[in-house]
Amino acid sequence: MLDTYELGSLTLPNRIVMAPMTRARATEDGLPVASMATYYAQRATAGLIVSEGMYPSAASQSNPNAPGIHSDAQVAAWRPVTAAVHANGGRIFAQIMHGGRVVHPETAGHHPVGPSAIALDAEVFTPQGLKPAVVPRALTTEEVRGEVAVFADAARRAVDAGFDGVELHGANGYLIQQFLSSTANQRTDAYGGSIAGRIRFAVEVAEACAAAIGADLVGIRLSPGGPTWGMAEDDVPDLYGALIAALAPLGLGYVHVMETAEEDVLLAMRKMWPGAFMVNPGGQMLAAKQAEQTGREAGDYWLWQGADLISYGRAYLANPDLVERFRLGLPLRPAPDRETWYAGGDADFVTYPTHQH
């Protein structure tokens, strides 16, 4: 885990990745704030940082106080963050996250869109608290192609903002996974129906971003069979096998897989994928594991199973020096209470010190 790793043109000093985590500290108009530069710089010893999800268009914002990457002002506000990470010796990818049907009009100021006009059966975040999701407007075929272009434009802006690359959020029930879903996607055109149709949007987004900034600067995060935000996927092994097969020729920087499916599904994906394979062993598959803070043992296990990189989420919340704690066998500080994850302000954000010997 502490070995170096060559990821495209980047030399990672270790195989430990800070996973993307929503922290809801940006301004109302999606601008990163100064403490976000501190937060990421504190964790720059990670082999790679993947930022919190940032919305690629005004209509795609799913969380209040999430940062964006679609305006000149947002690009300018991200530059001090990426500069702080680089000044501390780190590397950082921007996660591009389109909310799709998880968007609420009170958050984004726009009506949500999705593969089909099928509402999420849950409450979603708004500035006034949780509210029932609304029925999204189904994208026309031409509009789907327009959303592909939205991702590519965001990728270009991210590189302009100083990021070393981008990660496409194809997991956790957001727009890319909505197209993969057999329930959220009831389309009858080329972007729905068969497995080939359901993977088409994900593949076209990856192709467009690779053409925009270079394939080795593009990763994609997947949660095979993951149920977050009402997702359901038929034929998970076949679906993700077809997706991996379609993505493999593109030469992407990495595939980032969450442990949301049975191990044999993930191992089959590992065997099919020719490039860097990142696993997040945080345990969203079983509800009992969702409260756990994953440690080094789980990461070592997946390295033995053939993963190249291991991403950690909650372990990085209260342990900015996670790499050194692993290196020296030091105990991990427990993750903070969930109420502080999105509470705003600097408390339980940039207030965690490194281990004191």
UniProtKB/TrEMBL annotation:
Species of provenance: Nocardioides immobilis
InterPro entries named in the record: Aldolase_TIM (IPR013785), OxRdtase_FMN_N (IPR001155), Oye-like (IPR045247)
Protein name: Alkene reductase
Keywords: Oxidoreductase
PANTHER family reported for this sequence: NADH OXIDOREDUCTASE-RELATED, NADPH DEHYDROGENASE 2-RELATED
One Pfam family this sequence matches: Oxidored_FMN
GO molecular function, a single term: oxidoreductase activity, acting on the CH-CH group of donors, NAD or NADP as acceptor
Superkingdom as given in the UniProt entry: Bacteria
Cofactor(s) demanded: FMN
Keyword Oxidoreductase applies: yes
GO cellular component: cytosol
Domain NADH:flavin oxidoreductase/NADH oxidase N-terminal span(s) in chain numbering: 6-331
Family stated for the protein in its record: Belongs to the NADH:flavin oxidoreductase/NADH oxidase family.
